[in-house]
Amino acid sequence: MTESVFVSYAGPDRAWAEWAAWHLRDAGHHVELDVWDWRTGDNFIERMTDAMQRATVVVALFSNHYFHRTRWTHQEWTSVMGDRGRLIPLTIEPLADTDIPDILAAVIRKDLHGLDEPAAIAALLAAVNGPTGPGAPPVFPGGAHAPAPAGTSHAGSPDRRPRMPAVAGQPRVWSVPSRNLHFTGRENLIAEMREELLGSQRAVVQALRGLGGIGKTQVALEYAHRFASQYDIVWWIDAEQTDQIHIQYTELATRLGIASSNGGAERNTRTLLEHLRTQDRWLIILDNADDPGDFETLLPAGPGHVLITSRNPEWRNVVRSHDLDVFPRADSLAYFSARIPGIDPEHADALANDLGDLPLALAQAAGVITSGVPPIRYRRLLADKTAKLMAKGIPPGYPTPLAATVDIAISRLTADHPGAVALLRIAAFLGPDPIPTSWLEAVGDQLSTLTVDTEDVLWPWSALQPLNRYGLARVDHETFQIHRLTQAIVRDHATPADATAAQDDATNLLAAVNPGNPVTPAAWPEWAALTSHLTAHPPITMHRPPLRQAFLKAARYLVHSGQARAARDLTINVHSTWTAISGADHPDTLAVAETLGHAAVDFGKHSEGRRVNEETFEKRRQVLGEDHPDTLNSANNLASTLNSLGEHAEARRMHTDTLARRRRILGEDHPDTLISANNLAHTLNGLGEHTEARRMHTDTLARRRRILGEDHPDTLTSANNLASTLDSLGEHTEARRMHTDTLARRRRVLGEDHPDTLTSANNLASTLDSLGEHAEARRMHTDTLARRRRVLGEDHPETLQSANNLAYTLNSLGEHTEARRMHTDTLERRHRVLGEDHPDTLNSANNVASTLGRLGEYTEARRMHTDTLARRRRVLGENHPDTLTSANNLASTLGSLGEHTEARRMHTDTLERRRRILGEDHPSTLTSASNLAYTLNSLGEHAEAVRLLKETRTRSRQTLGDDHEFTQRVTASLATALTAAGKRHEAQKLLASRKAGQRRTRRKSR
């Protein structure tokens, strides 16, 4: 029977996988092997899932590597076991029972290790084909029998079948350094190398290129050992000194018996290369080859393989090259886990970050730590004495420690390329992130340590290429990059005079960079690059006056791009440094304090932001005067902070004053004036003055569109705020349209995870909830909450807003228990973060009480509503919309407790206030009217209840539509009241119309 077979294996066992797949295909089975059948760029998870679904059999090659927790093999075999598929385990190396997971311990497995190849092929096929009886009498156990002959290749063509690794053993000619037993990672690279080396009948040459210490030699070494069984000849050549290659080739020729004792090294090299041209299954490794031109006559031809390791990027122009980068963090952690058992994962992650994930540095660190130095101590030493620490110890498989590797490369450069060394020193005082070459083009001739030839049209690339060639830098078309440890070694080994000169040039370089307005999203990518280098060495850069403006703008960039934590951390450090140098009243110190206050509020530290903004405002009033633009900036920021803290009345007073001053001093249309107008309107909305807020937001939006453009972040803020005000006014359909448009623009301009984008997503979801589209609201709130938790943190006020809104939507969906849990958690967090009387805290208290009412816990709901109403009256005032919400909810709870008379009194009062403040047709007003009618019906006043419900239903149909859930509920209440009033026939007609509306709603939701 033909099977569809998927071969599951660990990367280091690829030779076994190829061997098994080959023989299964040869036996007629359909076999899928990732390295044969999947293309570069395919989604690995999707391909694996599809393959597992197609396969009738999964052949799993059990080894110690196979059960390592970091490998995908875990998902493969657990998927088969979970689906009760057919798993065929074959062990390819000895395993103890404890090595195999319990779930697999009872599965019968076959051993391939220890068998010769014919026996292993038979065992493989028998395992897949299933048990069969013997075709001939079994051989007498006591007799001797010879093994069956192995298959032969077609005459005149090389045998390219994979060999069985355990049988093939070591090649007959083998000269390779010992294997690195701690080799980790690079599985995809090795798989890609193997696939490409097998892809041609001619000699295949591949180069591994990268920085010093990146692990090029280790990859070549691992490849040679891993696939040794597939070659007859494997020969390692130290290619750093090209004049010695002929001698090493002669040694190989001698081992092959083709060398001439008196022919000389060059002649023996030619003889060897001619011999290899006619042979297959050979692998030549040229380690640390430099100039490709030196190897034109030294690369073998024929159906074999050549691997080259080099720092020189020129190899990419000659042969297929693989550029190695530092380890992915997961590989660094896996390496530390293997080398340093028991290391704390957080310590390992921090150490890998300090070492820049450079494999050689990781190996050196592991060697020192395993000798007894604690990881925390090692990190302190690394920060203080990088060069000395990186000179310690030669890890297995590496020729020299990192410090020596860097020093050797620099010494070779100094004589022939002094400009490259000078550029390296300047870069050492920048950050480890990519450095745009455009910065050098702009000011290179103004840097004192660089001698730029004005006739050199290729500068700075002519200075960068030697660094690239010697593995000291990564250079591409637009940037270059120096590894952080290389930078530290260069800094430590520079003379004091050289270090000072390089620092001065680095300062001048950074001061000359001008990415543009830090508020504008188009400038953010270059601001990100500049900020990373400004902040790389703060003890140096923060003390340099030429960089102060760059720091102030970088801090503003961090704030406006939504990186509140980074902005706060930076401004705290800068403010402390500049206060010590220039004093607290210096304009630069006050400028960074302004941004610190902004960042603290954005980070959710409102009390800290208030303190900083108050201090800055007072100092600027004293130093600069009441009407100075900087003083007005501080006044605006303090007022906005007060608004965030729920102190709306004082915020209103300050915003009103600041707006008047800005209009007088700056003009009606100045961007700062429009900021004040927006903020005052936002405060009015918080005070419940929605109509005036709408007027101001509409005017500000029109001005911003005209002056700043449709997609400017400030314009989008006005659009969001106007939409939210429309929501407060009950105009949900128009609010939805505006929120949808603003969200799309913010996603495009600011990005998916920018705090302002998340604000729009939250607001649109809330509007959908108001429109009765609870399922979509839930989806959006869930997504926004997850993003805010990740971006802002669990306790950020905006994260708590999303948690509150999601819980509110769950209530609308009838999931009251989960809503209660979420509302209770949010209330506790808001108590702690914002305080008992903050409007957001009171909102959560109201929502917990309402949820308790839905769960039938009326007594506790009454207690909480009574307390919340009292607090809202004191904090917000009698007529604030939120206060009226509490009054409405308490009245409804009293009705549920049977206290209909008091409920009637409260509902009547709340309805009158809502009509006066919000208008007759506002959804909240309609809610009060419906609740009062329900209470009247309970008191037996059916005629008045019917009158009020008819009026409410008419208004709801006009405002919200026939199919809105509120209209449907009012229709049901009216039918109940009509029935109670003896108008049963009219009630039945009404219910029939309601059912038709419900059917329409269900059809729309499909």
UniProtKB/TrEMBL annotation:
Gene3D superfamilies: P-loop containing nucleotide triphosphate hydrolases, Tetratricopeptide repeat domain, Toll/interleukin-1 receptor homology (TIR) domain. The keyword Transmembrane helix does not apply. It comes from Streptomyces puniciscabiei. Residues 141-156 have a biased composition (Low complexity). The keyword Mitochondrion does not apply. SUPFAM superfamilies: P-loop containing nucleoside triphosphate hydrolases, Toll/Interleukin receptor TIR domain, TPR-like. Residues 1-132 form the TIR domain. It comes from the Bacteria. This is Tetratricopeptide repeat protein. Residues 882-895 have a biased composition (Polar residues). GO terms for molecular function: ADP binding. Keywords: Repeat, TPR repeat. NCBIfam families: FxSxx_TPR (NF040586). Residues 136-169, 877-907 are annotated as: Disordered.
